[in-house]
């Protein structure tokens, strides 16, 4: 027993439990971060696309308002809706995000006269 230089069973169990605890903490956090990253990426992509679509209504006086249509963008069905509010044109985009909840993003702009 005096020359026992190896690990005892208790030391191995403690080390394994620490590693297991770290792994069970980091894996869900990494999964949540990836989900949130995907949601933010979709928001950014669709906000840019909504901005481009809104420009057609701001610069074209012959565009019919209110207008509603849908498009497939990045394998997501996105509903675009354009209306007049006061002296502004409101453009909104609605879609289902990665968490299967409905998101809505709106932009406003003044129409070119």
List keywords for this structure.
about 110 residues, alpha+beta, 4 strands, about 30% strand
Distance between the termini: 94 Å
Give helix and strand order, one letter per element, not per position: HEEEE
Strand content range: 25-35%
Secondary structure category? alpha+beta
Q: In one word, what is the shape?
A: rod-shaped
Number of strands: 4
Residue windows where pLDDT falls under 50 for at least 5 positions: none
Rg for CA atoms: 26 Å
Count of discrete alpha- or pi-helical segments spanning 4 or more residues: 1
Q: Biggest β-sheet: count, sense, barrel?
A: 4 strands, antiparallel
Spatial order of strands in the largest sheet:
1-2-3-4
Look at the structure and give the mean pLDDT.
89
* Helix percent band: 40-55%
Verbal overview:
The chain is α+β, with helices and mostly antiparallel strands and 113 residues long. Helices cover 45% and strands 31% of the residues. It has one helix and four strands. The chain has one helix at 9-59, and strands spanning 67-73, 76-85, 88-96, 102-110. Strands 1-2-3-4 form a four-stranded antiparallel beta sheet, with helices on one face. β2 and β3 form a beta hairpin. The radius of gyration is 26 Å and the shape is rod-shaped.
């Amino acid at each position: 027993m005096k020359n026992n230089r190896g690990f005892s069973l208790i030391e191995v169990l403690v080390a394994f439990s620490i590693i297991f605890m770290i792994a069970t903490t980091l894996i869900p956090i990494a999964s949540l971060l990836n989900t949130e990253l995907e949601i933010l990426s979709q928001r950014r992509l669709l906000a840019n696309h909504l901005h481009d679509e809104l420009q057609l209504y701001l610069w074209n006086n012959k565009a019919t308002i209110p207008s509603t249509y849908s498009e497939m963008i990045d394998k997501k069905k996105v509903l675009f809706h354009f209306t007049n509010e006061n002296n502004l044109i409101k453009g909104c985009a609605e879609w289902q995000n990665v968490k299967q909840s409905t998101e809505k993003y709106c932009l406003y702009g003044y129409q070119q006269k």
